Amino acid sequence: xxxxPSSSRALPSSEPPPGPAVDFQHQTVLLHETVExxxxxxxxxxxxxxxxxxxxxxxxxxxxxxVVGVDRDPVALAAATARMGANARFQARQGNFAxxxxxxxxxxxxxxxxxxxxxxxxQLDVAERGFSFMKDGPLDMRMGDSGxxxxxxxxxxxxxxxxxxxxxxxxxxxxxxxxRELKKAxxxxxxxxxxxxxxxxxxxxxxxxxxxxxxTFQALRMAVNGELEALDALLAALPSLLKVGxxxxxxxxxxxxxxxxxxxxxxLVGGCTCPPGFPVCVCNSQGDFALxxxxxxxxxxxxxxxxxxxxxxxxxxxxKIR
Length: 322
Hints:
Elements: H1 31-38, E1 45-48, H2 55-62, E2 66-71, H3 74-84, E3 90-94, H4 100-103, E4 110-116, H5 121-125, H6 150-156, H7 159-170, H8 175-185, H9 190-200, H10 214-224, H11 227-241, E5 242-252, H12 255-269, E6 289-291, H13 301-306, E7 314-320
Parallel strand pairs: 1-2, 1-4, 2-3, 4-5
Antiparallel strand pairs: 5-7, 6-7
């Protein structure tokens, strides 16, 4: 059962996030389903760890919640602040969701935590961000404004480790030949990198439903931004982030991400560890969380038709019960 809404409290003042105020339109995935699972209401404080286009945050605000949106991307923060900054129940803070215990230390524990692990449409669509293999731009892929670019990552990683990275993060069956060609070419532009992948993979082995460079670009993006490491840190921090009755919701788009979320939630929930055949439970092994839904929530056919990027989204949620 959800906890009672906490008494309303004002957000502490903070400096406006850096970055230019530009258009940052993003089609929010699983909007209705996510908002319903997080139980927004007046007095409930929710952390949106991946503010992005602000679609989830805007809907949570509309239901009366107080929302602090966190994002690494200064462009996303500036756009969200320009659109929602007049709302006293909203605040934007720059940071990585892996670092929520520090970024939101003055608010903890809270009533809800949301993380949407998808890449924002503007990040994919703006060539200069370097995420797209369909548009020419610098091979960057950084979600924030610091750290190593994808081009620098290729240059600084030896062929063997680069192949392992492509295999682990992209599940790329031609990881070794692609890594070999990337090290030879050391691409600096997105289309240049995509051409390298095309050369490395036999034409008859190109996938039918996705671009041949999809897995390679996905793997490089995940490595550049430390996405799986950030998810591990968030999942480990959940017990300290949430108050009793608080809920955490995670939207993932990759099988590795969803597996991590599923296993972490299962560990939080706990369960009987008695040997099979025991007539009654004697271990009393109970976790502090309960699953909000037994299975991952997927996008409806209508949403997938309207937004094909939602087809691989999986939403899971847990509630802290003690």
